[in-house]
Design goal:
The protein is of the alpha/beta class. It has eleven helices and 14 strands. Strands 6, 7, 8, 9, 10, 11, 12, 13 and 14 form a nine-stranded mixed beta sheet that branches. The protein has a three-stranded antiparallel beta sheet with strand order 1-2-3. Strands 4-5 form a two-stranded antiparallel ribbon.
Amino acid sequence: MIIRFSYVGISISFTYGTNLMQFNLNQLRTFFLTAKEKSYTRAAEALFITQPAVSAQIKCLEQDLQFKLFRKSGKDLETTNSGKILFSYAERIFEVVMEMEHVMKGYANLTRGSLTMGTTRSFARHLMPNLLSNFQEEFPGVKVYLEVGSSQEIANHLLEFKYDLGIIARLPYPSKLKAISYSKEEFCLVIPPRHRFATMKEVSLKELQKEPIIIRENGSGSRNAILSLLDAHGVKPSFLLEAGSFEFIKEYISKGRGISFLYKPEFKQEAKMGLLKSIPIKEGPIFIQSCIVFPIDMALSPTAQAFLRLIQVDAECPPEGKANHLLEGQQK
């Protein structure tokens, strides 16, 4: 048996030797109800069509199958032996159809389904828990899968349709991705407690000229944003160390080996313990724009649409611009 989809529904084809017999799901439903009701008239009422229309579909089906499906038994219709066999298969088919309709309605009304998202490690720890908690409270039947990586990795995977949505910082996104602004996340200049800046009320970016600065790995939005910011102010650090782990960066700073710009929630505990200290920047606080990103060419799933409605975002990210102290439009 071969099942093909067509404009009239599902087309079911049987091949017997050199003969090809074909009918559609509407014909099979008409036969099924006629056999169940044992009447053309009652089947027509159930289908909301005329009795001649039912008779015509049955006749067409019998011609395609090349055998009779019904015989008269008094006032009722009885299925032939071949009709009984077809009825048993039709009964199983429509059980599956009903199950399919139930499941699809569940996806449509969000009583079931899934949502796959990608985000950065920092956002996964500090931004996503509250968002996903609210979403799952609203839609408890939807399974949520969260993957982590650098901003660039998430953007690349979105282009491969591996995620429904991504929440990352602003990148120079490819034209095939759409970005919607979500929030501005604060980054701070972090130093060891005994650093020469520790007694200062604020530090200008120019004063970082001779400082060893620790930055995130390639592909991180914050790396590109911070380097763009420093370059815009003519700052050339004496030494740059790349690291992909926030834990390593914090440990390295606490040992007095360098300074860094860190996502504010990432070092809150170390600051309370006196292991790290943040110093205000004279040019103003540093904020990086986070965005919700998805492929333009992919229709959003009902779960993705529900997530966007829940967090009520509708402002498109601004075009890429020059770096400034707010770092709007920059990366994380």
